[in-house]
Amino acid sequence: MARKNESVEVGSGNVFKDLGYADADERKLRTQLAMRLNDLLKERKLTQTAAAQIFGIPQPHVSELRNYKLSRFSSERLLHFITLLDKDVEIVIRPKAANHEAGHVSVLVAA
């Protein structure tokens, strides 16, 4: 059996950028926020119905959030949902890190 030569391409750290999305940074940010929201919902053991009541949205929209179907959610809306779960959100603006080509946005979680 002949061996195939396979090549591996190193990613950029943003899968959406690697897939060629024009709004890659926004998609990455929304995904990071949704991951944290889903963690909070799990920690609180909230059902989708209970989360929908807190967020003021229909339960099917919470299902979309839980399944990372984020087209209907802006970053601002996801940030608002986090505050509705009794969390503070702090935005820090600092000089660009030397190892980034352009400005960088990330979600950090404090204990």
UniProtKB/TrEMBL annotation:
Q: Which Gene3D superfamilies match?
A: lambda repressor-like DNA-binding domains
SUPFAM superfamilies, A to Z: lambda repressor-like DNA-binding domains
Q: Name one GO molecular function term.
A: DNA binding
Q: Which InterPro entries match?
A: Cro/C1-type_HTH, HigA2-like_HTH, Lambda_DNA-bd_dom_sf
Q: Where is the HTH cro/C1-type domain?
A: 37-92
For this entry, the protein name equals XRE family transcriptional regulator
- Recorded source organism is Azospira restricta
